Amino acid sequence: MSYEPRQFWEQRLREHFDLRGTGETGLSLAYNRACYALRREVLERALREAHVALAGASVLDVGCGTGFFTNFYLERGARVTGIDIAAASVERLAAEFPEARFVRADVGEEEIAERYDLVNMFDVFFHITDDWRWEFAMRNVAGAVSAGGVLVYTDVFSPSASELAHNRTRPLVRHLDILQDSGFKLLRVYPTHVQLNPDLGPIRFLNAVPALLLGVDRVLLAAGVPGGRRNQLLIARRGA
Questions:
Q1: CATH superfamily ID and name for 5-238
Q2: Which of 70, 121, 129, 185 could be disulfide-bonded to 168 (CB atoms 3.0-4.6 Å)?
Q3: Cα separation of 117 and 180, whole Å?
């Protein structure tokens, strides 16, 4: 079956308008909450170490989904615009967060006209499976960052090995080439998970105890254990 992004995400978010919809639909809500708790902690660290002030900042949340990161930035005093490909996202979030602005758009096809102090994009790029649309989206999202602003997003940053029709990853060097061409300086790449999120193979039964995996990952990440070929967070700053 071919992958039609608008249809895929519309159906998925209408069926699961919670963290399973933007995370792992086959695992529990508790598991997905643990994954997102760790993502939030890694994001907080990245922004703190980059000395990013969020109060009053303009933020674009690309692929705003069920609003986890929209809420993150609103709670910290940012002015937030959310973009998502699915009407299910835009309609629900507009009602939930009237202080924010939401737009239905596909960043792989439709140019972002405005500029923002920070652009946030979690787990979106590897769902853009066509290379030309992916490169357009990369340049489009990078171009939405104001001079001196910050781009933060997640990816696996490896040659694609997924058998899923809606996943295709690219190596880090391809990302960095476009970012450098767009005037960005890489600040750092952070692993976001070690045991949470990947396929645990013969010990996958541990997915039933996400609190344990969350505790283990917190210790491993604090110790500097690399995430390997797992989800990572990239933060880069655009030149003034």
A1: Vaccinia Virus protein VP39 (3.40.50.150)
A2: 129
A3: 18
